[in-house]
Amino acid sequence: MKKLYHGACFYPELWNEAVLEEDIKKMKEAGINVVRIGEFAWSKMEPEEGKYDIGFFVDVIRKLASHQIETVMCTPTATPPVWLTHGHPERMYVNERGETMGHGSRQHVCTNHPYFRERARLITEQIAQKTGRLPGLAGWQLDNEFKCHVSECMCQTCKTLWHKWLREKYQSIDRLNEAWGADVWSETYQRFEQIPQPGATPFLHNSSLRTMYQQFSMEKIAEFAREQAAVIRGYSDAPITHNSSVMFGVNNEELFSDLDFASFDTYASKENSAAFLFNCDLWRNIKKGRPFWIMETSPSYSASIESYAAPHEDGYLKAEAVSSYALGGAAFCYWLWRQQRAGSEQPHGSVLSAWGEPDVGYANVLEVERARKEVEPVMLSTVPVQAEAAVVYSDRAKAFLKTEPHRGLNYRSLITGFYERFVSLGIHRDVIFEGSALDGYKLLFTPFLHYMPQELIEKASAFAENGGIWVAGPLTGGRTKHHTIHTDCGLGPLETCAGVKTLYTFPMDERRAAGSAFGVKAPLSLWSAVFEARPSEALGIIEQGPASGKAFITEHKQGKGKIVMLGSMPAGEAGDVMLKRLISHYAEEAGITMKTDVTPGTIVAPRTGPDGIVWVMINMDGKGGEVTLHKDAVDLIANKREAAGRLTIGPYQYRIILFPDM
């Protein structure tokens, strides 16, 4: 990293030359040093089929560069022009109700249609040829928010590709019927072409069908991204990303495997700051060792012509920016620079209003810029410390839970709530993918993974064998890769590995079921696994409800370490206490050292550099906080010594503390 970026999404094609000049001048005043352009401008770049005009954007990039503002160039494929769609319903996205989208909004075309793919390749090539080597080009963004407004497409193109995908995956129809248990409800297929898409039905689709279709869709959008990236690399060396999210219908692990750096969009409010921090801890590890970008966040509030969110409190934007830089980010960018005068998002918060005056969040943008300049020397000379505790995130698990949500469960909410307990306990943590390496970790959590791949089980088992502590569950291991139930034992290979016997799996009712562990009695909830275990290995016992006297938490020695099974989700206030005690217990046993007693609502982001360990302390809740310094240190902002003991921080304040190497 040579700098910290402070940026905004910019739409010069919507304004005249005078506004462009004014915008650049005001960007300099606000400290904006990078902009993202082009993602919705296909009709400007190719007003008629095959007639290209990229010159406007070439001029804009050059003009920005002359003012020391760098550019992220986008491919505009999220908004195909009307000449591509008019009179061609076969090219359009079709939802699960069989409704064909018309032209308008965005993501209205099927990204798998061959004509769209060809036109997308050609416009990408034209943009890359004209802009790929320009001075000031910081990077590339593919498309915009894949699968944000749409889910799995049900058009005829996708149906044909779906059948091809199934044939390649299963090889024979008999194998598919066996894997899916298609005899249930007489769903046995005679050939691949008979297999439907998961559209409208009187009741529910076969679980295998629905989950596999999600995986098919995720693979196809990743394929589209690879195609665009390959075209760009023929003309440009600038790094490539996509502005994704854990909310969208994509497999981010697969999507980013062929991209150069990770970026995401977030509009979390102060009340949901855990989701913001979760994203930073995940995206830091998507492209390990490479800084991530926040490509979009609001300078004040998000809105559309149908809804709006409350503006941030003064100071919160600064806290977000500094925490993102401290947790491994290189860029903090807004959507958007100048308020749009038309369209569906005209009410959205911006840096400038449509008439060119500072918007309500402008003062906070200036505050972010002052903070960026202040923290930049430290961020450029240090790197985030790898955590010793890791939580596994899986977009495949998100697909399984979308198919089988039980009573409206949402994977993103479940995993964020689980993660939030690490934050509240002051434990530095990484969020990693199923395929991530486990080197350097001491404590591993794999919650809410309906299906655990054999590779992950073997890797986590070896991790425990070598001295790590692996906590599996809740809601983990009960399904096969085809989204069916194991027939050898309740949790399949996970059960065998963990040295337990699953007696039952059933939904715990927190109004009637309760269990005790770590000195706490709490209600138990969610679909649960109940274990038969030796008394020495049964750490959590069900005391109320079905299966009383049996175990819901077990501990099994594995080589130098151990495997812990969490079979049910503790609920309510007592459940929160129990989970925190479980996490704290195993953090201490695993020898976690990157842990502070920071007060709730404040975080400590540890970094390391040539002079020692640095703590970046940020208050996120506007109430201020405290942390204990374990030894004398130096405040790098105030340039003064700080004695060991309690250190305070004000509302939305940040402090940077160095513990010098002795």
Tell me about this structure:
The protein is an alpha/beta fold and about 650 residues long. Among the domains are: about 390-590, Rossmann fold (3-Layer(aba) Sandwich), CATH 3.40.50; about 600-660, Golgi alpha-mannosidase II (Immunoglobulin-like), CATH 2.60.40. Helices cover about 30% and strands about 20% of the residues. The protein contains 17 helices and 28 strands. The strands form four sheets. Strands 11, 12, 13, 14, 15, 16, 17, 18, 19, 20 and 21 form an eleven-stranded mixed sheet that branches. A nine-stranded parallel sheet has the order 5-4-3-2-1-9-8-7-6, with helices on one face. It has a six-stranded antiparallel sheet with strand order 10-22-23-28-25-26. α11 (about 315-325) links the parallel β8 (about 290-295) and β9. α5 runs parallel beside α8 and α11 (about 315-325) packs parallel to α12 (about 360-380). The radius of gyration is 26 Å and the shape is globular. The model has no long low-confidence stretch (mean pLDDT about 95).
